[in-house]
Amino acid sequence: MILGIETSCDETAAALIDADGNILASVVASQDELHARFGGVVPEIASRRHLELVTPVIRQALADAGARLDDLDAVGVTTQPGLIGALLVGVSAAKALAWARRLPLISVNHLHGHVASLYLRPLDLEPPFTCLLASGGHTMVLDVQDRGGYRVLGTTLDDAAGEAFDKGARLLGLGYPGGKEIDALARQGDPTAYSFPVARVPGLDFSFSGLKTSLLYKVRDLSPTELEMRRADLAAGYQRAIVRALVGRVEAVAAGGPIAVVGGVAANSELRAALPGATLAPLSLCTDNAAMIASAARYTAPVPYPGYLSLDARSTA
Ligand code: KG4
Ligand code: ZN
User: Fold this and answer.
1) Nearest bound ligand to CA 283?
2) Would you say the CB of residue 181 lies under 6 angstroms from ligand 1?
3) Is 7 a domain residue?
4) Same domain membership, residue 275 and residue 215
5) Helix (H) or strand (E) holding 136
6) What is the span of the domain harbouring residue 144?
7) 164-192 pLDDT per residue, tens
């Protein structure tokens, strides 16, 4: 049984999976409400909240699975990339638990975790596939040949897709996090009412900053009453442009081969509908969770005791 711990951003999460990749428990304590009034994650507030929540969340995961700490075979924890203070809370908790029972510790890259959300049962996806990873912090097209890792083929040159959703939502006067809000509002809007630019960057990369600027100008030209009336159309057009950019890129890279989509933005309903042949991460595993971290741990070499006591968190990948 592997315990996974995730504290890289604003979700405090713990999960237990078995040796076959079945989820026995997955607990996610979201800090969304805490950060909403600031319109984004405040790193110091996130770290403090992780500190309060990490032990209760682990206890809850054990209770949900009917397991005890003695049942664990290994502890997997996100060590990078993310907010450094937030990561350190999870890493310290993982070290303490592993050390107390002389268990191996597995250092997991958060992005590998997102990809590994596809390896959990019942999905249990087998590589090779081309993977679109779209989250609040990253937007990448990956070549996945085996479960142990991936090769980055393209990445965003500026904002991540989730970040574009969040910033767009803010311009439209919607709440945080914005992806879900735009997704809901876009359903009531006409995606063709406004035209948004789909950036053409050379190679396999993405760019979303021009799109955001385009929305800014459109919003600026409207009076508050007009904005009220056109908000759904703007959301629909903006979302369509992001989805087009993502789908166009991943389909071009995959060239007819299998496609998978992971990360918070993989929860987007238009994106899911636009890739009918693709394997989509289950909705509960799109946004940050610890089951995906435990899953990645299955395919990562453990650090034996006591070497992991000097293991550090890193803010970059
Ligand atoms: O993977 P995730 O939980 O955290 C990171 O690793 O960044 O992704 C969070 C991102 C946020 O930007 C959020 O707005 C976006 O995923 N998101 C969505 C949807 N649900 C969450 N974006 C578009 N449509 C959604 N339904
Ligand atoms: Zn994530």
Assistant:
1) 1
2) no
3) yes
4) yes
5) none
6) 129-280
7) 999 999 999 998 889 999 999 999 999 99
